[in-house]
Every structure is written in structure tokens, then in C-alpha cells.
Amino acid sequence: MTDATLRATPSTAREAKLVTYARLAKLDVFDYYLSLLVVLSAVLLPIGGFDLAVLVTLGLFGLGAVLMTASLVAFDDLTGHRDGSDTANYRANPTLRRARRKPLVTGALTEPEVVCFGWLTAIAGAAVFAVAVATAPHAPQWTVWLIAANFVVGIQYSYGLKISYHGFQEAYIAALGWVMVLAPYGLITGRFDGFVLVQALLFGLGPLLFGVYSNTNDIAGDRAVGRPTVAALTSPRGNRRFVAALSLGEFLLGAVASATGVAPWWFVLLMLPVTVLRIRQFGIGFGPRGDILRARAIGFTAHRVGAALLVAANLVLAVTK
């Protein structure tokens, strides 16, 4: 697929500008926002004591997260377009990775438009987060610092300091998921909980375990621009071991939590469907067929199943207390 072909897609040329900006913001990828359901399930019961202010806090935090993430991915696309990595990566597999998800690659948006969108959503996100903290039932200092640090680092992910270009990409992908659970829980309850921490860690591993498959697919493009992901820095064998370790670590986290009493004894059994999906994902991605993008798609399913099981775990625990 040539640059001319990428820019000559009729459907892209005709679509409304609003839809193009939605593509830029990656609004169809809602996986991080599932954290709101996980947190809600942890505080919902008993229903008689539920405070409607919780929904306001969750709604504001969620809106702030959407705006911040929109800014993050817009700046990520801007940097990827400027260094040529997005064009190279999307040209490599135009059927499975649709180029029109990258409006700069197709020419549907210009760089000034993306920069403006990135800063407007960043400013709006900061304002909404501030309102969420100011109106929350609780605002412990650790929660406020967590939100602020995550926001500052997120905007710098591929822009400004470009932390993802200095070896911290995988760490931030997971950390964003951790914050998306811990921060709103802290705003609502004012406390820190061991089982919620376990859930946050598992939730953050979900996006990481489809992100590392994306990185495996993008090795050539990332190496060309000096983006040091684990996949780009190591050998195929080293990368395979890294992904295997993450997949095993996800299972062990739940197992150890159940064994030590941080989580209910049955928690590790409840999460077994995710483990089965991880085994299948790894086999498809790193087995004889080496279908990395299909394995990546399974990662989305595994994360969504995992989020649903975390919700179930919270509800069962509340009912059986």
C-alpha cells in the first residue's frame, strides 16, 4: 500500500470531521474505561447504603480519563506521523490494521488540527479531573497525586519528553490501568484496599497484554525511529519470553492473592477463563503460525472477560460477607 493509496480512500474523504476526530481519539477502544465498572462493583453493595454522589464522581473521573486519553493518542499519532513509523507500520498490514484509524496517515487531518485537538482535550481533561477531585466524597492526598502524576506523564507519553521513546512504554501502559482503578476508588472511599490493589494490577496487565503483541508486530517501524520497546530491543526469543512472563505473572498474581488471603480463596478459580485465553493468545501469536495480530485481538477479549470477572468477584464478595 503506497502513501497515495492511503490518502485516496473515498470513505475517509467523505466522512464527517467529527467522526475523523473520534477516530483520532480512538473512542472505539473503550478497554481502559471498563475500570469504572470494576470500581462501581466494589462500592455498589449494599444497595441501600449506596450514595448517588458516587456516580457523579465516577462520571467526572471517566470523562476526564476519556479527554486525557484522547490527548495522549492524538499526540502519539502526531509523533508517529512525523517520524514515519505509523505509515510504515500500517503499510505493512493494511488489511488487518486499517490505515484510516490514523487520520494523519490518510490525510484526513492536518498536523495543526491534531496539535490543536491534543491541547484542547488535555486542558479540558485537566479541568474535569479538578472538578472530580473537588466534588468527590473523599480526596486523600495519595489519590490526588496519583491523578496529577498520571495526567502529566500521559501527556508526555509520545510528546514533549516522549517517555515512550525512552524505554517506559510498557510500564506506562500498565500503570494507566492501575490508576484507572485505584484513583476513582480512592476518591469514592477515601481508603486503600489490598484486594482492590490486586484488581488494579490485573486490570493494568490487560492493556499491556495486547500492547506487547502490537509492539511485536511493529518491531521494524519502532526500530527505524529508535522507539525502544522490549520487542524492538530484544531478540525474538527474548521477546517471546517477556510476553510469556507477563502472561504467567498475571495468573500468579491472582493465585498468590488467593493463597495469602488478600483475595478470596475462590478468586484464582474465577479468573481461570482469562488464563485459558492467555494460553491460546500466546500459542497463536508465538506458535508455528505466528499470527501476531490475531493474538492481539484475543488480548482485547481476554481483558474484557477479565474486567467482567472482576466485577463478578466484587459482587459475590459483597453478597457473601
TrEMBL record:
CDD domains: PT_UbiA. GO terms for molecular function: prenyltransferase activity. Pathway: Quinol/quinone metabolism; menaquinone biosynthesis. One of its GO terms (cellular component) is membrane. It is a multi-pass membrane protein. The chain crosses the membrane at residues 30-47, 53-75, 114-136, 142-159, 171-188, 194-213, 242-259, 298-319. Coiled coil: none annotated. Its main location: membrane. Keywords: Membrane, Menaquinone biosynthesis, Transferase, Transmembrane, Transmembrane helix. GO terms for biological process: menaquinone biosynthetic process; vitamin K biosynthetic process. It comes from Amycolatopsis vancoresmycina DSM 44592. InterPro entries: UbiA_prenyltransferase, UbiA_sf, UBIAD1. This is 1,4-dihydroxy-2-naphthoate octaprenyltransferase. It is found in: Membrane.
